[in-house]
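Q: What residues go here?
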């Protein structure tokens, strides 16, 4: 029987995915949607109108196409409705608001991040109902640290739209928040808000937050602190707020980040453990149903303890369907139930498709189910110890096969020692989970709990030590990046090679090899563009000036903060196959204040250079870049300099940027604002 026939939800999932993607790029008119909707209804009804059996068989495809078109129109409509619900009604309008916390606050370096629902706004007529989701950054103080899910605040604020991606290959924070339903952000200083009350209605999410905070306090009572507490909280309860950037980077660089995110792997561990403990309930179908019910209850109980985060709920739903499929002993049903869980989740919220966790979770699970049995058969273990090692190896390799394209696309790096990491991290993390459970259960027993806490702290220390040790091994990380085109064709190649392995169809092999060839062509195209280009890029930095000069694959950077420059430009450099940056300073290219690049005269005004210079006549320039928050009088600047174009970076204040713009308009000088239009990219080869 064909795979598509055995997995009907895979066929139903395809029009949903297509409709969600099309909605992002194609704006159909309303009459077009109605036309497609009525066409789908006609196609669904037509097979029942045809009475001749031979004709029914000939036109059986009409019903399937009708379902495809109906689901396509449905998800397109739902995507639009979801976007309308997420519109924030009072952007850039300062006022008094009432908001309610829709999630537990997240502690940052200087603030608490709070996701809120805006309930009311005070205007000339009094309190009026409004709507919208926003991110508040509350200044750190004792009051903010005590907030919980469901708390209601009254505050004075001005909500602004989230910042879009301003730099090449930069993270689009606005699109990320939009797909989470968030339409505004705001910083709220201490003293401009107060807690008014708390939502009295029963909330599972609120109870889950209280429960998780109680368990975290138990860890703190036994003096588990620092990196050990951060890893323990993330590993067992999904609390990642305490993770420091360097520790997070170590786990990411070694391929162990998945153990710090309570999602698919952790729920899968709970599923496997519960299935093993309840394996005696396999004698008849009734016992199997009881076993499935108990497994599902434990899965959702663990999700509750970990705070009911979206990733955990998604993984729990997926494994609940897997448990149901396993109950009926239908292997093909496992695939169908996984696709069914994705189908209903996308119907609930189409934006889940763009969530990185959603993509990684489903690709990892499907890859493990498909590839692990194949890899497992390559070696027959002769004892239980070697079998355990081989099973761990095969699962790790299978998961990497499915998630590798996403990893290279989103993170531009591949952990070369991911197998070694998993052999270290998974056993130790399992021990940590068991010791943590023991500590929570024996916390009221004085000496026993102290002994368990001692073992737990040393296990956590050893886990962190070994992760850092693996990170510091030679060639532990490969910096490889895929663009969206390469990611698609790599997945196509994996799919086609898998189809060839099972069905031995020559066409699948040809398509798979063609996909690999196409990915190589895309890579060569990028290399060619890089080797034939000369570019100047003025990046958008928060407080510093960054100018990038690219001469083929050579990478020269003028910056007032190399750390920020690395953070905002690293992805672009890797995607463009550029060399490591060579940082230039005033005394190199700009010894006389002006640099020549690709035949253009360029001045970067980021200090009091003009005060130290005298000019017998105005200095002619092609490009004047004003940055680092400079505030010279633009009229005096233009008396000394005659630029063809002025580029103002993001560090310049709004009022000064506008004064420069007016001065340029009066003198017919071209003007460009990085803050308004994004990074300035000039390709000298055009």
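A:
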């Amino acid at each position: 029987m064909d795979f598509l026939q055995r997995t009907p939800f895979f066929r139903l999932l395809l029009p949903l995915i297509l409709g969600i993607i099309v909605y992002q790029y194609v704006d159909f008119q309303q009459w077009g949607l109605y036309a497609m909707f009525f066409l789908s209804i006609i196609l669904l009804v037509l097979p029942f109108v045809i009475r001749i059996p031979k004709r029914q068989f000939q036109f059986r495809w009409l019903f399937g196409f009708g379902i495809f078109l109906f689901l396509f129109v449905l998800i397109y409509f739902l995507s639009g409705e979801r976007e309308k619900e997420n519109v924030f009604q009072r952007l850039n309008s300062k006022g008094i608001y009432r908001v309610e916390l829709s999630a537990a606050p997240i502690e940052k370096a200087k603030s608490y991040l709070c996701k809120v629902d805006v309930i009311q706004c005070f205007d000339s007529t009094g309190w009026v109902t409004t709507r919208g989701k926003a991110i508040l950054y509350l200044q750190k103080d004792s009051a903010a640290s005590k907030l919980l899910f469901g708390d209601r605040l009254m505050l004075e604020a001005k909500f602004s739209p989230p910042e879009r991606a301003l730099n090449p290959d930069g993270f689009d924070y606005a699109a990320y928040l939009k797909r989470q339903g968030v339409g505004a952000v705001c910083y709220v200083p201490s003293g401009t808000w107060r807690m008014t009350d708390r939502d009295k209605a029963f909330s599972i999410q609120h109870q889950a937050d209280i429960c998780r905070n109680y368990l975290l306090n138990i860890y703190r009572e036994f003096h588990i602190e620092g990196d050990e507490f951060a890893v323990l909280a993330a590993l067992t309860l999904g609390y990642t707020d305490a993770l420091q950037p360097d520790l997070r980077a170590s786990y990411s660089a070694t391929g162990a980040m998945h153990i710090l995110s309570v999602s698919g792997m952790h729920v899968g561990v709970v599923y496997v453990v519960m299935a093993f403990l309840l394996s005696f309930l396999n004698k008849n179908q009734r016992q199997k149903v009881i076993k499935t019910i108990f497994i599902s209850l434990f899965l959702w109980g663990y999700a509750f303890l970990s705070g009911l985060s979206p990733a955990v709920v998604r993984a729990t739903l997926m494994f609940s369907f897997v448990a149901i499929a396993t109950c009926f002993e239908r292997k093909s049903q496992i695939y169908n139930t996984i696709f069914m869980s994705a189908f209903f989740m996308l119907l609930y919220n189409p934006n889940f498709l763009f969530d990185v966790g959603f993509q990684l979770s489903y690709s990892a699970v499907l890859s493990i189910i498909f590839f692990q049995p194949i890899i497992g058969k390559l070696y027959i273990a002769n004892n239980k110890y070697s079998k355990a090692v081989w099973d761990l190896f095969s699962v790790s390799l299978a998961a990497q096969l499915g998630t590798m394209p996403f990893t290279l696309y989103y993170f531009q790096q591949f952990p070369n020692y991911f197998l070694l990491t998993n052999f270290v991290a998974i056993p130790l993390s399992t021990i940590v989970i068991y010791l943590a459970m023991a500590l929570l259960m024996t916390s009221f027993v004085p000496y026993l709990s102290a002994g368990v806490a001692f073992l737990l702290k040393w296990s956590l220390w050893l886990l962190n030590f070994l992760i850092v040790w693996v990170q510091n091994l030679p060639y532990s990380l490969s910096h490889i990046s895929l663009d969206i085109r390469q990611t698609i064709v790599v997945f196509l190649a994996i799919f086609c090679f898998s189809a060839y392995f099972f069905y031995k169809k020559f066409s699948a092999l040809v398509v798979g090899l063609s996909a690999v060839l196409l990915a190589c062509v895309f890579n060569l195209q990028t290399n060619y563009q890089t080797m034939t280009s000369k570019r100047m890029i003025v990046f958008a930095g928060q407080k510093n000036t960054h100018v990038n000069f690219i001469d083929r694959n050579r990478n020269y950077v003028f910056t007032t903060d190399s750390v920020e420059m690395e953070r905002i430009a690293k992805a672009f450099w890797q995607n463009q196959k550029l060399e490591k940056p060579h940082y230039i300073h005033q005394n190199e290219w700009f010894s006389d204040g002006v640099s020549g690049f690709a035949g253009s005269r360029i001045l970067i005004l980021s200090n009091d250079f003009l005060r130290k210079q005298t000019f017998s006549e105005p200095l002619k320039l092609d490009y004047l870049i004003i940055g680092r928050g400079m505030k010279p009088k633009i009229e005096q600047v233009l008396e000394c300099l005659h630029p063809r174009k002025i580029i103002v970076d993001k560090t310049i204040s709004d009022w000064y940027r506008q004064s420069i713009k007016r001065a340029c308009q009066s003198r017919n000088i071209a003007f460009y604002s990085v803050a308004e239009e994004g990074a300035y990219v000039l390709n000298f080869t055009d």
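A: Context that may help when evaluating the design: The chain has a mean pLDDT of 83. The chain has five domains: 3-85, 94-201, 208-478, 484-531, 534-683.
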